[in-house]
Amino acid sequence: MSMSSVLIANRGEIAVRIVRAAKALGLRTVQAHSQADRDSLAVRLADEAVEIGPAAAAKSYLNIEAVLDAAKRTGVDAIHPGYGFLSENAAFAQAVTEAGMIFVGPDAHAIRLLGDKVAARDVAAKAGVPTVPGSDGRVSDLGVARAIVARIGFPAMIKAAAGGGGRGIRIAQTMEDFERHFPQAAAEAQAAFGDGGLYIEKVIERARHVEVQILGDGKNFIHCFERECSLQRRRQKVWEEAPAAMLPADVRERLCDSAVALVRSVGYRGAGTVEYLYDEASREFYFIEVNTRIQVEHPVTEMVTGLDLVQEMLRIAGGASLSVRQEDIAVSGHAIECRINAEDPAKNFMPWPGKVASLAVPKGDGIRFDTMLYEGYQIPPFYDSLLGKLIVHGSDRTDALCRLRSALAGLAIGGLPTTVSLHQALAADPAVANGDFHTRFLEPWLETQFAALQGGMKEAV
Ligand code: ADP
Ligand code: ADP
Ligand code: MG
What we know:
With about 450 residues, the protein is of the alpha+beta class. The chain contains 15 helices and 20 strands.
Protein backbone atom coordinates (compact mmCIF):
# COMPACT_ATOMS: atom_id res chain seq x y z
CA MET A 1 0.00 0.00 0.00
CA SER A 2 1.27 3.46 -0.92
CA MET A 3 -0.20 4.74 2.30
CA SER A 4 1.31 4.39 5.74
CA SER A 5 -0.59 6.89 7.89
CA VAL A 6 -4.07 8.32 8.19
CA LEU A 7 -5.70 11.27 9.93
CA ILE A 8 -9.16 10.55 11.32
CA ALA A 9 -11.23 13.70 10.75
CA ASN A 10 -14.23 12.69 12.84
CA ARG A 11 -15.20 11.84 16.40
CA GLY A 12 -17.29 9.48 18.53
CA GLU A 13 -17.76 5.80 17.88
CA ILE A 14 -16.84 6.00 14.19
CA ALA A 15 -13.44 7.56 15.01
CA VAL A 16 -12.75 4.63 17.33
CA ARG A 17 -13.85 2.19 14.61
CA ILE A 18 -11.53 3.82 12.03
CA VAL A 19 -8.54 3.97 14.39
CA ARG A 20 -8.91 0.22 15.06
CA ALA A 21 -9.25 -0.68 11.37
CA ALA A 22 -6.26 1.47 10.40
CA LYS A 23 -4.12 -0.07 13.15
CA ALA A 24 -5.10 -3.56 12.01
CA LEU A 25 -3.65 -2.62 8.61
CA GLY A 26 -0.44 -1.37 10.23
CA LEU A 27 -1.11 2.31 9.54
CA ARG A 28 0.03 5.13 11.82
CA THR A 29 -3.11 6.80 13.17
CA VAL A 30 -3.54 10.49 13.97
CA GLN A 31 -6.78 11.54 15.62
CA ALA A 32 -7.97 15.08 14.83
CA HIS A 33 -10.10 16.44 17.67
CA SER A 34 -11.77 19.57 18.97
CA GLN A 35 -10.93 21.08 22.36
CA ALA A 36 -14.05 19.39 23.75
CA ASP A 37 -12.86 15.97 22.60
CA ARG A 38 -9.43 15.92 24.27
CA ASP A 39 -10.50 13.05 26.52
CA SER A 40 -12.17 10.98 23.83
CA LEU A 41 -11.55 7.25 23.46
CA ALA A 42 -10.32 7.74 19.88
CA VAL A 43 -7.68 10.22 21.12
CA ARG A 44 -6.55 7.66 23.71
CA LEU A 45 -6.37 4.83 21.18
CA ALA A 46 -4.69 6.62 18.28
CA ASP A 47 -0.91 6.80 17.95
CA GLU A 48 -1.08 10.60 17.94
CA ALA A 49 -3.67 13.32 18.43
CA VAL A 50 -3.90 16.81 16.99
CA GLU A 51 -6.23 19.61 18.06
CA ILE A 52 -8.15 21.32 15.27
CA GLY A 53 -10.16 23.99 17.07
CA PRO A 54 -12.88 24.80 19.59
CA ALA A 55 -15.90 22.66 20.44
CA ALA A 56 -18.23 24.15 17.80
CA ALA A 57 -18.15 21.79 14.79
CA ALA A 58 -18.11 24.75 12.37
CA LYS A 59 -14.75 25.75 13.86
CA SER A 60 -13.25 22.25 14.10
CA TYR A 61 -14.70 19.13 12.41
CA LEU A 62 -16.28 21.21 9.64
CA ASN A 63 -13.32 23.54 9.22
CA ILE A 64 -11.55 22.45 6.01
CA GLU A 65 -8.52 24.68 6.58
CA ALA A 66 -8.02 23.45 10.14
CA VAL A 67 -8.27 19.78 9.16
CA LEU A 68 -5.88 20.19 6.21
CA ASP A 69 -3.44 22.11 8.36
CA ALA A 70 -3.49 19.34 11.01
CA ALA A 71 -2.88 16.72 8.31
CA LYS A 72 0.10 18.64 6.93
CA ARG A 73 1.54 19.29 10.38
CA THR A 74 1.41 15.61 11.28
CA GLY A 75 2.65 14.47 7.87
CA VAL A 76 -0.10 11.93 7.15
CA ASP A 77 -0.67 10.36 3.73
CA ALA A 78 -4.44 10.17 3.95
CA ILE A 79 -7.59 11.52 5.63
CA HIS A 80 -10.60 9.38 6.60
CA PRO A 81 -13.69 11.59 7.00
CA GLY A 82 -16.02 9.05 8.70
CA TYR A 83 -19.74 9.96 8.36
CA GLY A 84 -21.47 13.34 8.72
CA PHE A 85 -19.19 16.43 8.98
CA LEU A 86 -16.97 16.72 5.84
CA SER A 87 -17.53 13.16 4.60
CA GLU A 88 -19.75 14.15 1.65
CA ASN A 89 -18.17 17.52 0.96
CA ALA A 90 -16.76 17.48 -2.60
CA ALA A 91 -14.72 20.66 -2.03
CA PHE A 92 -13.02 18.99 0.92
CA ALA A 93 -12.25 15.81 -1.04
CA GLN A 94 -10.75 17.96 -3.78
CA ALA A 95 -8.71 20.08 -1.35
CA VAL A 96 -7.25 16.94 0.25
CA THR A 97 -6.18 15.62 -3.15
CA GLU A 98 -4.79 18.98 -4.25
CA ALA A 99 -2.72 19.09 -1.08
CA GLY A 100 -1.11 15.83 -2.21
CA MET A 101 -2.93 13.54 0.21
CA ILE A 102 -5.42 10.70 -0.21
CA PHE A 103 -9.10 11.24 0.57
CA VAL A 104 -10.53 7.96 1.86
CA GLY A 105 -13.68 7.95 -0.22
CA PRO A 106 -14.76 8.54 -3.81
CA ASP A 107 -13.27 11.41 -5.82
CA ALA A 108 -14.79 14.89 -5.77
CA HIS A 109 -16.49 14.28 -9.11
CA ALA A 110 -18.39 11.22 -7.85
CA ILE A 111 -19.35 13.05 -4.65
CA ARG A 112 -20.71 15.96 -6.72
CA LEU A 113 -22.75 13.61 -8.90
CA LEU A 114 -24.11 11.44 -6.09
CA GLY A 115 -23.95 13.54 -2.91
CA ASP A 116 -26.37 16.09 -4.38
CA LYS A 117 -29.69 14.27 -4.06
CA VAL A 118 -31.14 15.85 -7.21
CA ALA A 119 -28.11 15.08 -9.38
CA ALA A 120 -28.14 11.52 -8.00
CA ARG A 121 -31.77 10.97 -9.09
CA ASP A 122 -30.65 11.83 -12.60
CA VAL A 123 -27.66 9.46 -12.46
CA ALA A 124 -29.96 6.70 -11.16
CA ALA A 125 -32.53 7.25 -13.90
CA LYS A 126 -29.80 7.18 -16.57
CA ALA A 127 -28.47 3.90 -15.13
CA GLY A 128 -31.96 2.40 -15.43
CA VAL A 129 -32.68 2.48 -11.68
CA PRO A 130 -36.31 3.28 -10.80
CA THR A 131 -36.66 6.58 -8.86
CA VAL A 132 -39.58 7.91 -6.79
CA PRO A 133 -41.99 9.83 -9.06
CA GLY A 134 -41.24 13.53 -8.64
CA SER A 135 -39.56 16.58 -10.13
CA ASP A 136 -36.97 16.20 -12.88
CA GLY A 137 -34.50 18.49 -11.21
CA ARG A 138 -34.38 21.31 -8.72
CA VAL A 139 -37.53 23.40 -8.44
CA SER A 140 -37.40 27.00 -7.28
CA ASP A 141 -40.52 28.50 -8.83
CA LEU A 142 -43.74 27.96 -6.83
CA GLY A 143 -45.86 27.87 -9.99
CA VAL A 144 -43.72 25.11 -11.52
CA ALA A 145 -43.72 23.25 -8.19
CA ARG A 146 -47.53 23.44 -8.01
CA ALA A 147 -47.85 21.88 -11.44
CA ILE A 148 -45.55 19.02 -10.41
CA VAL A 149 -47.45 18.18 -7.22
CA ALA A 150 -50.74 18.47 -9.05
CA ARG A 151 -49.42 15.76 -11.39
CA ILE A 152 -47.91 13.37 -8.78
CA GLY A 153 -50.61 13.88 -6.15
CA PHE A 154 -50.67 14.11 -2.35
CA PRO A 155 -49.14 13.52 0.07
CA ALA A 156 -46.02 15.01 -1.50
CA MET A 157 -42.57 15.47 -0.07
CA ILE A 158 -40.44 18.61 -0.36
CA LYS A 159 -36.81 17.62 0.03
CA ALA A 160 -33.58 19.61 0.27
CA ALA A 161 -31.02 18.67 -2.39
CA ALA A 162 -28.29 18.93 0.25
CA GLY A 163 -30.29 17.35 3.10
CA GLY A 164 -29.13 14.48 5.24
CA GLY A 165 -29.44 12.86 8.66
CA GLY A 166 -33.25 13.01 8.33
CA ARG A 167 -33.23 16.80 8.07
CA GLY A 168 -34.51 18.94 5.22
CA ILE A 169 -37.73 17.01 4.49
CA ARG A 170 -41.34 18.25 4.73
CA ILE A 171 -44.62 16.55 3.86
CA ALA A 172 -47.56 18.40 2.30
CA GLN A 173 -51.02 16.80 2.54
CA THR A 174 -52.84 19.42 0.44
CA MET A 175 -52.04 22.17 -2.06
CA GLU A 176 -52.62 24.75 0.67
CA ASP A 177 -50.11 22.93 2.86
CA PHE A 178 -47.69 22.78 -0.03
CA GLU A 179 -47.88 26.52 -0.76
CA ARG A 180 -47.09 27.25 2.87
CA HIS A 181 -44.23 24.73 3.22
CA PHE A 182 -42.42 25.35 -0.06
CA PRO A 183 -40.95 28.83 0.63
CA GLN A 184 -40.20 27.88 4.25
CA ALA A 185 -38.36 24.74 3.12
CA ALA A 186 -36.15 26.77 0.77
CA ALA A 187 -35.19 29.26 3.49
CA GLU A 188 -34.55 26.47 5.99
CA ALA A 189 -32.38 24.47 3.57
CA GLN A 190 -30.35 27.58 2.78
CA ALA A 191 -29.76 28.19 6.49
CA ALA A 192 -29.04 24.55 7.41
CA PHE A 193 -27.04 23.33 4.40
CA GLY A 194 -25.91 26.53 2.66
CA ASP A 195 -27.92 25.39 -0.37
CA GLY A 196 -31.60 26.26 -0.72
CA GLY A 197 -32.13 23.80 -3.60
CA LEU A 198 -35.35 21.78 -3.36
CA TYR A 199 -36.95 18.87 -5.20
CA ILE A 200 -40.26 17.08 -4.94
CA GLU A 201 -41.13 13.42 -4.48
CA LYS A 202 -44.34 11.50 -4.14
CA VAL A 203 -44.72 9.97 -0.66
CA ILE A 204 -44.42 6.20 -0.84
CA GLU A 205 -46.79 5.07 1.92
CA ARG A 206 -46.09 2.10 4.18
CA ALA A 207 -42.68 1.75 2.55
CA ARG A 208 -39.75 -0.16 3.95
CA HIS A 209 -36.29 1.42 3.87
CA VAL A 210 -33.94 -1.01 2.15
CA GLU A 211 -30.38 -0.09 1.16
CA VAL A 212 -27.54 -1.79 -0.66
CA GLN A 213 -23.91 -1.68 0.49
CA ILE A 214 -21.56 -1.33 -2.46
CA LEU A 215 -17.80 -1.35 -2.99
CA GLY A 216 -15.89 -0.16 -6.03
CA ASP A 217 -12.22 0.25 -6.95
CA GLY A 218 -12.85 2.24 -10.12
CA LYS A 219 -12.79 -0.90 -12.28
CA ASN A 220 -14.71 -3.53 -10.36
CA PHE A 221 -18.02 -2.89 -8.64
CA ILE A 222 -19.75 -5.25 -6.25
CA HIS A 223 -22.56 -5.25 -3.71
CA CYS A 224 -22.46 -6.69 -0.21
CA PHE A 225 -26.21 -7.30 -0.16
CA GLU A 226 -28.79 -5.19 1.64
CA ARG A 227 -29.85 -3.81 5.00
CA GLU A 228 -33.30 -2.88 6.24
CA CYS A 229 -33.61 0.34 8.26
CA SER A 230 -37.37 0.92 8.52
CA LEU A 231 -37.51 1.62 12.25
CA GLN A 232 -37.00 5.38 12.21
CA ARG A 233 -37.77 8.39 14.36
CA ARG A 234 -37.80 11.79 12.65
CA ARG A 235 -36.55 9.99 9.52
CA GLN A 236 -33.42 8.85 11.34
CA LYS A 237 -32.64 5.21 11.69
CA VAL A 238 -32.93 3.75 15.15
CA TRP A 239 -32.57 0.00 14.51
CA GLU A 240 -31.10 -1.74 11.44
CA GLU A 241 -30.92 -5.29 10.16
CA ALA A 242 -29.20 -7.42 7.53
CA PRO A 243 -30.52 -9.03 5.47
CA ALA A 244 -33.95 -7.44 4.80
CA ALA A 245 -35.95 -10.45 5.97
CA MET A 246 -39.12 -9.82 3.95
CA LEU A 247 -37.45 -9.20 0.59
CA PRO A 248 -38.32 -11.84 -2.05
CA ALA A 249 -35.18 -13.40 -3.61
CA ASP A 250 -35.90 -12.11 -7.12
CA VAL A 251 -36.46 -8.55 -5.87
CA ARG A 252 -33.24 -8.75 -3.81
CA GLU A 253 -31.31 -9.69 -6.92
CA ARG A 254 -32.74 -6.86 -9.02
CA LEU A 255 -32.25 -4.38 -6.20
CA CYS A 256 -28.60 -5.29 -5.59
CA ASP A 257 -27.85 -5.37 -9.32
CA SER A 258 -29.39 -1.91 -9.77
CA ALA A 259 -27.11 -0.48 -7.06
CA VAL A 260 -24.06 -1.93 -8.82
CA ALA A 261 -25.22 -0.54 -12.19
CA LEU A 262 -25.60 2.90 -10.62
CA VAL A 263 -22.11 3.06 -9.07
CA ARG A 264 -20.51 1.49 -12.16
CA SER A 265 -21.97 4.33 -14.25
CA VAL A 266 -19.80 6.85 -12.33
CA GLY A 267 -16.69 4.66 -11.91
CA TYR A 268 -17.08 4.69 -8.13
CA ARG A 269 -14.13 4.10 -5.80
CA GLY A 270 -14.66 3.25 -2.16
CA ALA A 271 -17.58 2.13 -0.01
CA GLY A 272 -21.04 3.55 -0.50
CA THR A 273 -24.71 2.92 0.07
CA VAL A 274 -27.58 3.13 -2.36
CA GLU A 275 -30.85 3.75 -0.49
CA TYR A 276 -34.32 2.70 -1.68
CA LEU A 277 -37.90 2.58 -0.53
CA TYR A 278 -39.58 -0.77 -1.05
CA ASP A 279 -43.33 -1.15 -1.43
CA GLU A 280 -44.23 -4.66 -0.29
CA ALA A 281 -47.70 -4.60 -1.83
CA SER A 282 -46.52 -3.90 -5.39
CA ARG A 283 -43.03 -5.39 -4.93
CA GLU A 284 -41.65 -2.19 -6.49
CA PHE A 285 -38.52 -0.43 -5.24
CA TYR A 286 -37.59 3.22 -5.73
CA PHE A 287 -34.16 4.83 -5.45
CA ILE A 288 -33.96 7.68 -2.90
CA GLU A 289 -30.30 8.60 -2.45
CA VAL A 290 -26.65 7.55 -2.34
CA ASN A 291 -24.46 8.03 0.71
CA THR A 292 -20.90 8.32 -0.61
CA ARG A 293 -19.30 7.30 2.70
CA ILE A 294 -19.28 4.68 5.42
CA GLN A 295 -22.68 4.44 7.10
CA VAL A 296 -23.56 4.23 10.77
CA GLU A 297 -25.16 0.81 10.29
CA HIS A 298 -22.32 -0.81 8.30
CA PRO A 299 -21.62 -3.37 11.08
CA VAL A 300 -24.74 -5.44 10.33
CA THR A 301 -23.35 -6.07 6.85
CA GLU A 302 -19.98 -6.97 8.34
CA MET A 303 -21.60 -9.45 10.73
CA VAL A 304 -23.43 -11.36 7.98
CA THR A 305 -20.70 -11.23 5.30
CA GLY A 306 -17.51 -11.40 7.40
CA LEU A 307 -16.07 -8.41 5.52
CA ASP A 308 -14.34 -5.49 7.22
CA LEU A 309 -15.74 -2.53 5.28
CA VAL A 310 -13.54 0.12 6.89
CA GLN A 311 -10.37 -1.85 6.17
CA GLU A 312 -11.63 -2.36 2.62
CA MET A 313 -12.13 1.44 2.23
CA LEU A 314 -8.58 2.08 3.44
CA ARG A 315 -7.12 -0.56 1.10
CA ILE A 316 -8.97 0.86 -1.91
CA ALA A 317 -7.84 4.38 -0.99
CA GLY A 318 -4.26 3.10 -0.88
CA GLY A 319 -4.58 1.97 -4.48
CA ALA A 320 -5.46 -1.69 -4.05
CA SER A 321 -8.08 -3.51 -6.07
CA LEU A 322 -11.11 -4.99 -4.30
CA SER A 323 -9.97 -7.89 -2.12
CA VAL A 324 -13.14 -9.89 -2.88
CA ARG A 325 -15.13 -10.80 -5.96
CA GLN A 326 -18.92 -10.76 -6.08
CA GLU A 327 -19.07 -14.56 -6.03
CA ASP A 328 -17.00 -14.63 -2.81
CA ILE A 329 -19.63 -12.72 -0.85
CA ALA A 330 -22.46 -14.60 0.81
CA VAL A 331 -24.86 -13.78 3.62
CA SER A 332 -24.77 -15.98 6.67
CA GLY A 333 -27.45 -15.69 9.37
CA HIS A 334 -29.01 -12.42 10.50
CA ALA A 335 -27.71 -9.31 12.27
CA ILE A 336 -29.45 -6.48 14.14
CA GLU A 337 -28.03 -3.13 15.27
CA CYS A 338 -29.49 -0.82 17.93
CA ARG A 339 -28.33 2.79 18.03
CA ILE A 340 -27.65 3.70 21.66
CA ASN A 341 -28.09 7.43 22.20
CA ALA A 342 -27.62 9.71 25.20
CA GLU A 343 -31.29 10.67 25.14
CA ASP A 344 -34.11 10.25 27.63
CA PRO A 345 -36.92 8.21 26.06
CA ALA A 346 -39.22 9.29 28.91
CA LYS A 347 -38.67 12.98 28.06
CA ASN A 348 -39.34 12.92 24.34
CA PHE A 349 -35.76 11.80 23.63
CA MET A 350 -34.19 14.91 25.04
CA PRO A 351 -30.40 14.75 24.61
CA TRP A 352 -28.78 14.07 27.96
CA PRO A 353 -25.03 14.36 27.94
CA GLY A 354 -23.59 13.33 31.30
CA LYS A 355 -20.81 11.43 32.96
CA VAL A 356 -20.57 7.68 32.49
CA ALA A 357 -20.56 6.55 36.12
CA SER A 358 -20.31 2.86 35.28
CA LEU A 359 -20.28 0.70 32.20
CA ALA A 360 -21.09 -2.99 31.79
CA VAL A 361 -20.80 -4.34 28.25
CA PRO A 362 -22.27 -7.69 27.19
CA LYS A 363 -19.77 -10.14 25.78
CA GLY A 364 -20.08 -13.40 23.92
CA ASP A 365 -20.39 -15.02 20.53
CA GLY A 366 -22.24 -12.88 18.01
CA ILE A 367 -22.24 -9.73 20.18
CA ARG A 368 -20.40 -6.53 19.24
CA PHE A 369 -20.53 -3.10 20.87
CA ASP A 370 -19.02 -0.27 18.80
CA THR A 371 -18.68 2.64 21.18
CA MET A 372 -16.89 5.79 22.27
CA LEU A 373 -17.66 5.15 25.95
CA TYR A 374 -15.43 4.32 28.88
CA GLU A 375 -16.04 4.52 32.61
CA GLY A 376 -15.66 8.09 33.88
CA TYR A 377 -16.07 9.65 30.41
CA GLN A 378 -17.83 13.01 30.38
CA ILE A 379 -19.97 13.15 27.22
CA PRO A 380 -19.58 16.59 25.61
CA PRO A 381 -22.91 18.33 24.90
CA PHE A 382 -21.92 19.80 21.52
CA TYR A 383 -22.46 16.91 19.16
CA ASP A 384 -24.72 14.10 17.98
CA SER A 385 -26.11 11.97 20.82
CA LEU A 386 -24.97 8.60 19.43
CA LEU A 387 -22.91 6.79 22.11
CA GLY A 388 -22.51 3.49 20.40
CA LYS A 389 -24.16 0.64 18.58
CA LEU A 390 -25.02 -2.76 19.95
CA ILE A 391 -24.87 -5.34 17.18
CA VAL A 392 -25.83 -9.00 17.41
CA HIS A 393 -25.55 -11.87 14.97
CA GLY A 394 -27.61 -15.06 15.03
CA SER A 395 -28.19 -18.08 12.80
CA ASP A 396 -31.52 -16.54 11.70
CA ARG A 397 -33.68 -13.55 12.66
CA THR A 398 -35.37 -15.32 15.58
CA ASP A 399 -32.01 -16.35 16.97
CA ALA A 400 -30.60 -12.82 16.49
CA LEU A 401 -33.59 -11.32 18.35
CA CYS A 402 -33.12 -13.76 21.19
CA ARG A 403 -29.44 -12.85 21.45
CA LEU A 404 -30.34 -9.16 21.27
CA ARG A 405 -32.68 -9.44 24.27
CA SER A 406 -29.96 -10.97 26.41
CA ALA A 407 -27.27 -8.57 25.13
CA LEU A 408 -29.49 -5.57 25.95
CA ALA A 409 -30.05 -6.98 29.45
CA GLY A 410 -26.26 -7.09 29.86
CA LEU A 411 -25.65 -3.51 28.67
CA ALA A 412 -25.67 -1.09 31.61
CA ILE A 413 -24.59 2.52 31.14
CA GLY A 414 -24.72 4.18 34.56
CA GLY A 415 -25.13 7.88 35.25
CA LEU A 416 -27.35 9.00 32.38
CA PRO A 417 -30.52 7.98 30.56
CA THR A 418 -30.01 6.20 27.23
CA THR A 419 -32.15 4.59 24.55
CA VAL A 420 -31.37 1.08 25.86
CA SER A 421 -34.89 0.97 27.37
CA LEU A 422 -36.43 1.80 23.98
CA HIS A 423 -34.55 -1.08 22.37
CA GLN A 424 -35.60 -3.47 25.13
CA ALA A 425 -39.24 -2.59 24.42
CA LEU A 426 -38.77 -2.95 20.67
CA ALA A 427 -37.00 -6.29 21.04
CA ALA A 428 -39.96 -7.56 23.09
CA ASP A 429 -42.63 -6.27 20.70
CA PRO A 430 -44.63 -8.88 18.70
CA ALA A 431 -44.89 -6.73 15.54
CA VAL A 432 -41.14 -6.20 15.55
CA ALA A 433 -40.60 -9.92 16.12
CA ASN A 434 -42.80 -10.62 13.08
CA GLY A 435 -40.92 -8.07 11.00
CA ASP A 436 -44.26 -6.37 10.52
CA PHE A 437 -43.25 -2.70 10.22
CA HIS A 438 -42.51 0.16 7.80
CA THR A 439 -40.93 3.61 7.98
CA ARG A 440 -43.98 5.15 9.70
CA PHE A 441 -44.32 2.38 12.30
CA LEU A 442 -42.09 3.65 15.10
CA GLU A 443 -43.48 7.14 15.73
CA PRO A 444 -47.10 6.10 16.43
CA TRP A 445 -45.77 3.09 18.36
CA LEU A 446 -43.83 5.47 20.61
CA GLU A 447 -47.00 7.50 21.25
CA THR A 448 -49.07 4.43 22.14
CA GLN A 449 -47.36 1.16 23.13
CA PHE A 450 -44.12 2.68 24.39
CA ALA A 451 -45.88 5.49 26.27
CA ALA A 452 -48.13 2.89 27.94
CA LEU A 453 -45.12 0.78 28.91
CA GLN A 454 -43.46 3.80 30.48
CA GLY A 455 -46.65 4.79 32.28
CA GLY A 456 -46.67 1.29 33.75
CA MET A 457 -43.06 1.63 34.79
CA LYS A 458 -43.78 4.91 36.62
CA GLU A 459 -46.71 3.36 38.50
CA ALA A 460 -44.54 0.46 39.55
CA VAL A 461 -41.96 2.83 41.06
P1 ADP B 1 -26.58 6.83 8.03
O1 ADP B 1 -26.98 7.55 6.76
O2 ADP B 1 -25.15 6.41 8.07
O3 ADP B 1 -27.52 5.77 8.39
P2 ADP B 1 -27.40 9.16 9.52
O4 ADP B 1 -28.38 9.56 8.49
O5 ADP B 1 -27.85 9.00 10.93
O6 ADP B 1 -26.64 7.84 9.20
O7 ADP B 1 -26.20 10.20 9.45
C1 ADP B 1 -25.00 9.99 10.15
C2 ADP B 1 -24.52 11.28 10.72
O8 ADP B 1 -24.22 12.20 9.70
C3 ADP B 1 -25.49 11.99 11.64
O9 ADP B 1 -24.76 12.58 12.68
C4 ADP B 1 -26.12 13.03 10.74
O10 ADP B 1 -26.60 14.11 11.49
C5 ADP B 1 -24.96 13.40 9.86
N1 ADP B 1 -25.34 13.83 8.52
C6 ADP B 1 -25.62 13.05 7.47
N2 ADP B 1 -25.89 13.79 6.37
C7 ADP B 1 -25.76 15.09 6.73
C8 ADP B 1 -25.91 16.35 6.05
N3 ADP B 1 -26.23 16.45 4.76
N4 ADP B 1 -25.72 17.48 6.76
C9 ADP B 1 -25.39 17.40 8.06
N5 ADP B 1 -25.23 16.27 8.74
C10 ADP B 1 -25.42 15.11 8.11
P1 ADP C 1 -31.62 11.66 4.35
O1 ADP C 1 -30.68 12.23 3.34
O2 ADP C 1 -31.99 12.59 5.43
O3 ADP C 1 -31.19 10.31 4.81
P2 ADP C 1 -33.57 10.32 2.64
O4 ADP C 1 -33.95 10.88 1.33
O5 ADP C 1 -32.65 9.16 2.66
O6 ADP C 1 -32.97 11.49 3.53
O7 ADP C 1 -34.88 9.97 3.44
C1 ADP C 1 -34.86 9.67 4.82
C2 ADP C 1 -36.11 8.90 5.18
O8 ADP C 1 -37.29 9.67 4.89
C3 ADP C 1 -36.32 7.60 4.42
O9 ADP C 1 -35.63 6.52 5.00
C4 ADP C 1 -37.83 7.43 4.53
O10 ADP C 1 -38.22 6.96 5.79
C5 ADP C 1 -38.31 8.85 4.39
N1 ADP C 1 -38.57 9.17 2.97
C6 ADP C 1 -37.73 9.78 2.11
N2 ADP C 1 -38.30 9.94 0.89
C7 ADP C 1 -39.52 9.39 0.97
C8 ADP C 1 -40.62 9.23 0.05
N3 ADP C 1 -40.54 9.67 -1.20
N4 ADP C 1 -41.75 8.60 0.50
C9 ADP C 1 -41.83 8.15 1.77
N5 ADP C 1 -40.85 8.29 2.68
C10 ADP C 1 -39.71 8.90 2.31
MG1 MG D 1 -30.94 8.61 3.69
